[in-house]
Amino acid sequence: MLELFINLLEFIYYSLSPILEVLILSVIFYYILKYLRGTKGSSVLAGLVFVIMGLTIAADLLKFEVISWLLNGLWTLFAMAVIVIFQPEIRRAFAQLGSNPFNKSQRKTETINEIITAVINLAGRQHGALIVIEQNIGLRHIIDSAVKLDAKLSHKLIEAIFYPNAALHDGGIIIKSGRIIAAHCIFPLSTNEFRTRSMGTRHRAALGITEDTDTLALVVSEETGAISIAYKGNIKRYIRPDKLRRFLNALLVEEKGKPFKEIISDISETENVNK
Question: What are the structural domain ranges in the chain?
Fold first, then answer.
């Protein structure tokens, strides 16, 4: 009886193991492609795959034995090519795996603190600014046409970038993972003329980029120093500096994914109760 049960388990294992292997490989390849999406190397990798596949198929059809043998050998070197092409991304991935959740939470808190300090200082001086925080959807198409910085986030650096008549003052900046990725970024303007007819270019750009992506945008008005937040195609204007932290924590940490209007409503109701 025991032997029969063991044989049954072995049969089930060997029957399901190919399916399990395919599922594991599918998950691995999915997350690898998702992680590499939007990077510079992704286009290089896609180009290499299509060229080698095309040449391999053509050589097999035309019966070019020597060329087929050489191309089959290239596939064995493909893993090394991937490591070379994606060296920065691979290093960053291992760094993220080695970091614990506490450090990630601490970095996010530091990021919010630096952004709040910069926004409040800019608003106090009435220096116009547009700060975009990238999340899941990449902004590579905008970063490639901007001035790439990849500098550690600092409120002093943000204030210097948006100092009037500074070289990078026009446009906006993109922040990701506690770093200023690019400056002098030109974002698409919102096409909703009815909602934006009384808004300036910065506010229209903030709405435009949040309509197409899951980014969060902060705007400081150059005319009034008023602070605005745009998220998922909605905008909240005239945010008091002392309430800015609550909005950023709610949108980036505590209630991430919750509809923007609900977050605004919840915070507004709490403010009314406290009064």
Answer: 2-96, 100-274
Give yes or no for a contact between 179 and 95, defined as CB atoms under 8 angstroms apart.
no
Given CATH 3.30.450.20, say whether it is the number of domain 100-274: no
Q: Do the beta carbons of residue 41 and residue 87 sit within 8 Å?
A: no
Q: Provide the whole-model pTM.
A: 0.63
Q: What is the pLDDT of residues 207-236, one digit of tens each?
A: 999 988 889 999 999 999 999 999 888 888
Pairing of strands 179-185, 227-231: unpaired
Structure tokens at 133: 């925080």
Contact 228, 237 (CB under 8 A): yes
DSSP 66-129: HHHHHHHHHHHHHHHHHHHHTHHHHHHHHHHHHS-HHHHHHHHHHHHHHHHHHHHHHHHHT--E
